[in-house]
Design goal:
single chain
């Protein structure tokens, strides 16, 4: 089972990687921008996050120091395009407080923490759940952790690699148990799954156009 699962995951990766190529995800100028984006992208489309990020850059607020100085209400208005902007402003402020009090605002010091320790600390921040924490760990800090999200869950369920309703912990474990702990691999693999979920493996799937249709056809007896 373990070897079969590894082969299945690698087959999915190879097909998607050949189809999409290197996706260079997460798009950002620096790790702090990734961290902010990970919070802003909760419950919204990435296009909305881009508008909020652009607004922050325009006002030179995309740094821990600048974001610490601005008031929460003003911050909320600036990130309004991201949706749930008052809640997200509060969450950004909570994160800045965590970064300032725990690491003197030093991103490098934060990322130098061991993966288990940092993940535990991130999950204690109000409004930071497993998906947001793991996005920060993988994309901002380069830690080898896999992100469990709705796209990944849907694709794995449809390919019978996990049971319906599997937990995020089980999904993360599937990748960590069967693949090398390589941040670059997990970065590209997760991005590939997100692109596949957005373009093909939707709630109403486009199976015949999907690059994974070959695997599906191999499983179905003629």
């Amino acid at each position: 089972m373990g070897m079969d699962c590894r082969k299945e995951l690698l087959a999915i990766y190879e097909l998607l990687n050949t189809h999409f190529g290197d996706l260079h995800w997460w798009p950002a100028d620096d790790p702090f921008e990734v961290m902010v984006g990970a919070i802003l992208t909760q419950n919204t489309a990435w296009s909305n996050v881009e508008k909020a990020i652009a607004a922050l850059k325009q006002r030179e607020l995309l740094s821990p120091e600048a974001m610490a100085r601005i008031g929460e209400e003003k911050l909320a208005e600036i990130i309004r395009p991201s949706g749930y902007y008052r809640v997200k402003a509060k969450r950004l402020k909570e994160f800045i407080r965590f970064l300032t009090e725990g690491y003197c605002g030093d991103i490098d010091a934060l990322c130098a923490e061991s993966l288990p320790t940092l993940r535990e600390k991130l999950l204690r921040i109000r409004g930071v759940g497993p998906e947001t924490a793991d996005s920060i760990l993988l994309y901002a800090c380069g830690k080898p952790v896999f992100i469990s999200d709705a796209y990944t869950q849907r694709i794995l369920e449809r390919h019978n690699l996990i049971p319906e309703g599997a937990t995020g912990d089980r999904i993360r474990a599937l990748f960590l148990d069967h693949l090398p702990h390589d941040a670059a691999l997990f970065n590209q693999f997760h991005a590939l799954l997100v692109y596949t979920g957005k373009n093909y493996c939707r709630k109403k799937p486009k199976c015949m156009a999907c690059p994974l249709r070959i695997l599906f056809q191999q499983r179905v007896p003629v």
